[in-house]
Write a structure and sequence with these properties.
With 433 residues, the protein is an alpha+beta fold. It contains 10 helices and 14 strands. The structure holds 2-acetamido-2-deoxy-beta-D-glucopyranose (NAG) (5 copies) and calcium ion.
Length: 433
């Protein structure tokens, strides 16, 4: 009997060979950077210097009259290096578990096992050498850049984002391969349960992944919900109801203007530590990557705090105008997103003052209510309304939650109540704190 794992392994290594081309292509960043779309904005070139021998491969930075600004990007390289080192450890442990596996197979005198075992072993070694190579090249590149920094600090630099995306992508790809290999390889036939030891998560898709590795402080973390896209920072709430929440939106003092255009809501705006909208593209990626629940926390100026929980939450992509999907409601604040037959934000498109996708035929709800939101015709909730520091009169364009105590008794021309705080955050449905 042959070990099915080894067969599988060989196809994975084929994939790896392509991405291991990563290790080779890293020699030739020139090519990668040329491909990148942002290249037009990047007059500088980073290229392999001469022939690359073994893992020693220098980088040369060619600068016309330009721009350098390294520190932040160097920080990112540091991060990548760390990830590559962690990958290397994962490969080491994989290698070990595969060896153990092979010994075990030999013990059982598996007749068909000969050849397959050692071949698999070689492939893990190959994997290891690819990781080593990538790691040392990254280190060279980093040293080189650090060396340059002194000389170039008066200049303004290079759009390093291309390189960052490129490297991120390679690391994500390697990680994916290592993680999948682990699932197959660490299980020896006949010894499924005792042997397997999950490889440490190397890609954090959202805040719950940070929670799982023991992070308990509420602050910003870098997440990669989809390894084909670049990673980005999010604010994690590690305290509310068990923690692990990725915050999508926060209002607390009116410091950020939420009357914004489509492109702003798409990319996100504000300050992650204070008030912000994370951005519709990011929200889409986060909610696509795992099944999420939504929690909304609200507080009024009397100090009343209530919440709403939706057991599903998904935001479609831009092509589908970031259409909202919410599940069943639970909580204390009332189901204002699905208020009635006539006011229902579920399954509505996103509307901004410059992009009318709402159900109101005579005008743009986003323009009238000064915000970007999944307007119906028009609203029973709007957490992106204006921040009023006290009750106000006129158009109800403040932060609004239609099921809030007392709100329905308000007179049409009278005062409207306002909110001190609002927050929207998500967490995987299957998360158990
Ligand atoms: C890894 O990269 C290779 C080549 O770039 C690609 O063909 C492959 O699909 C990638 N694998 C994953 C899991 O993205
Ligand atoms: C890198 O890519 C460029 C452009 O495709 C090519 O001309 C050059 O020969 C490559 N260099 C190496 C070392 O492969
Ligand atoms: C917010 O931005 C909008 C659009 O640019 C502008 O009209 C409005 O005056 C701003 N509000 C505040 C309070 O700055
Ligand atoms: C993810 O990639 C797609 C396609 O390249 C792009 O349109 C989108 O803006 C990216 N999202 C983020 C959050 O970077
Ligand atoms: C709502 O949440 C509470 C507290 O978590 C739980 O006890 C209750 O069963 C939930 N109700 C529904 C309808 O899911
Ligand atoms: Ca309309």
């Amino acid at each position: 009997m042959r070990l099915p794992g080894w067969y599988w392994l060989s196809s994975v290594v084929a994939v790896l060979a392509a991405c291991g081309a990563g290790a080779e292509q890293a020699h030739n960043l020139t090519e990668e950077l040329r491909d990148a779309s942002a290249q037009a904005a990047c007059p500088a070139r980073l290229e392999g210097r001469g022939k690359c021998e073994g893992s020693q491969c220098g980088f040369q930075l060619t600068l016309p009259t330009l721009t350098l600004q390294l520190p932040q990007q160097l920080g990112n390289m540091e991060q990548v290096l760390k990830e590559v080192r962690a990958l290397k450890e994962a490969v080491d442990s994989l290698k070990k578990s595969c060896q153990d596996c092979k010994l075990q197979a030999d013990d059982h005198g598996d007749p068909g096992g000969d050849g397959a075992g050692p071949a698999g072993d070689n492939r893990v070694q190959e994997l290891e050498s690819q990781v080593n190579k990538l790691s040392s090249e990254l280190k060279d590149a980093k040293d080189e850049l650090q060396g340059l920094q002194g000389r170039l600090e008066t200049l303004h630099l290079v759009n390093m984002n291309n390189m960052e995306h490129y490297v991120d992508d390679k690391v994500a790809n390697l990680t994916f391969v290592v993680n999948s290999l682990d699932g197959k390889c660490s299980k020896c036939p006949g010894q499924e349960s005792t042997q397997s030891q999950p490889v440490q998560h190397l890609i954090y898709k959202d805040c719950s992944d940070y929670y799982m590795i023991g992070k308990r402080s509420s602050e910003t973390y870098r997440v990669t919900p989809d390894h084909r896209n670049s990673s980005f920072l999010v604010y994690c709430d590690m305290e509310t109801m068990g923690g692990g929440w990725t915050v999508l939106q926060a209002r607390l003092d009116g410091s950020t203007n939420f009357t914004r255009y489509w492109k702003d809501y798409k990319a996100g705006f504000g300050n992650l530590e204070r008030e912000f909208w994370l951005g519709n593209d990011k929200i889409h990626l986060l909610t696509k990557s795992k099944e999420m629940i939504l929690r909304i926390d609200l507080e009024d100026f009397k100090g009343l705090k209530l919440y709403a929980l939706y057991d599903e939450f998904y935001v479609a992509n831009e092509f589908l105008k970031y259409r909202l999907h919410i599940g069943n409601y639970n909580g204390t604040a009332g189901d204002a997103l699905r208020f009635s037959k006539y006011y229902n934000h579920d399954l509505k498109f996103f509307t901004t003052p410059d992009r009318d996708n709402d159900r109101y035929p005579y005008g743009n709800c986003g323009l009238y209510y000064s915000s970007g939101w999944w307007f119906d015709a028009c609203l029973s909730a709007n957490l992106n309304g204006k921040y009023y520091h006290q009750k106000y009169r006129g158009v109800r364009n403040g932060i609004f939650w239609g099921t809030w105590p007392g709100i329905s008794q308000a007179q049409p021309g009278g005062y409207k109540s306002s909110f001190r705080q609002a927050k929207m955050m998500i967490r995987p449905k299957n998360f158990k704190p």
